[in-house]
Sequence to fold (402 residues):
Amino acid sequence: MSTARIDVVVVGGGIVGLATARALTVQLAGASVVVLDKEPTLAAHQTSHNSGILHAGIYYQPGSLKARLAVEGCERMADFCTERGIAHDRCGKLVVATDETERTRLDGVAERARANGVTVAELSPGEAAELEAHVRCVAALHVPSTGRADFAAVARTLAEEVRAASGTVRTGVEALRGTPTAGGWRIETSKGPLDARFLVGCAGLHSDRLARRSGSDPRAVILPFRGEYLEVSEPSASLVRGLIYPVPDPRFPFLGVHLTRGLDDRVHAGPTAVLALAREGYRRHEVSARDVLSMAIWPGTARLVARYWRPGLSELARSLSRRRFTEAARRLVPDLDAADLSPGTAGVRAQAVDRSGGLVDDFTLVEGERSLHLVNAPSPAATAALGIGELVAGRVAEAFGS
Fold:
């Protein structure tokens, strides 16, 4: 690979890396921007292995980056898709409480949603049935701004816009490590070295490793959580009109099994949230010795397991037992027929875990000398990608001006 001088290298060709590169071509007009991705195609991991939901921002801590960028991002991403003819909609979603304990938690979700500036409506069981005739609940929350989007198509469009602005997007090129130089960075890649003034890491499942190999301390390790889905076929699929979510369980940091009808009109139940044995472990039998070792030696892993072992075992049991998985979905829609549920797709969520065993909740940027790494960007990162990209690009632009 040529060692011609580059202004900014962005490592990671997912939706966030490409949104960052696009923002850089705007905020650093005339600068040379290069995106590197190790896969032969763009958006090969989290961007194309998720439920495709435009999140409204109802769950996130008020004042956090997640909350602000999700609420703004839901509107901005819908506008972006509209302007460019990318498949999307604003179908809304229903969050349902199936017992009195969940009703109390639902009130907390409504309070947080309103604190974040999201319009929600509290519904009785009869009102909920007008939206989803087959749902079972004691109360529900309707979130009209929630939507669906083809995030892989968004990523491809962002790449086209980077190229149109004279940026470069290179697939099949793995960034191995970065070494500081007098004027920036020497970045060793699988296709040879290149020189850059500034290094930006948006490497998703490998974001912590890239940061460490470039001399930064992310103070966390990425743990991969596999999310498995069941595909719902007819006649049960006709029982789900749109998006039906449970009230989140505060004992566990994920949303729980929900029912979603996608833009392709297919219905899925899921996901589970099981600690995977490989960062790209989309199937149960996939094991990476390197990834298992990195989890084993990180002190936060054992502390995380000690903290969440009970819900963790429940998730594992649900993953291994089709009956338990189906029971979770039938809490929302009791008339689902188990015979209509079959194994579907799976994704892997990159979740940063700190030394204390805490799951890092907010989007996290780690700044280094002429470098910036996004080391925690779980859901709703796809929804918030345009805002995250502008935030990162703004920090880089400040560094260039200093």
Notes: The mean pLDDT is 96.
